[in-house]
Amino acid sequence: MDDLWVCELGSVPYGEALALQEAVRAARQQDAIPDVLLLLEHPPVYTRGRRTADAELPLADHGIEIVDVDRGGKLTYHGPGQLVGYPIVRLGPIVEFLRTMEQAIVAALASEGIEARGADERPTGVWVGDRKIASLGIHVQRRVSTHGFAINVDGDLEPFSWIVPCGLDGVQMTSVARETGQTGRMRCVRRRVAYELASAMGRRQRLVSRARLEDAAGTRALAA
Q: Among residues 20, 128, 153, 166, which one is catalytic?
């Protein structure tokens, strides 16, 4: 069974995480490292996917940076209390991988007592009833993915109300905390998602430090 390296990064500014993704992707394309899952949180930031319309942007300046990115999907918000996962993996069919990520998130949320479902009859993402709890969007270059998923755990959901999240006008965003009334579940959700995604991919999960990942990928300078 092949490994899935899981690297827990803590809170990382969006630009720094993007540079790390690109460096790790280059190493994965060269088969210098196995598939990798980066798990982290971001300071507040809006990321604007390629298909985002101007009408979906905030109407006022809330002091949150807007970053254009090359992933699929539209505009979304990242901030503290949201678990972000960047699987940097060699892919087969792209839609199949999106469904795999959804299934892993659904299984992880079930361990929190949340009955969720993927996007069989909805836009890509994970839903609790009519409420969206996780968003997905990836970019693929030479068969290796970057970007990934974001699960609302116990962060502030108000910044979603200032935009048209994922291009879905009127959508209600939710979180683990809102659905269960429990906060402080980030560590458990993070570990469960890593386990479920590794299992769904048929990989053996192996925890690695950022230093180990950067050494193996030849990107240690990014840690400075």
A: 166
CATH of the domain at 100: 3.30.930.10
Distances (CA, A) of 133 to 53, 158, 215: 22, 14, 35
CB 81 within 8 A of CB 156: yes
Mean pLDDT over 192-214 rounds to: 97
* Average pLDDT for 146-171: 89
Query: Which of 170, 223, 215, 222 shows the shortest CA–CA distance to 27?
Result: 215
Q: Is 188 a catalytic residue?
A: no
Number of Cα atoms under 13 Å in the Cβ half of residue 32: 16
Structural domain including 188 reads 3-223
CA dist., res. 67 & res. 147, Å (int): 13
The pTM for the full model equals 0.93
Q: Do residues 9 and 212 touch, judged by C-beta distance below 8 A?
A: no
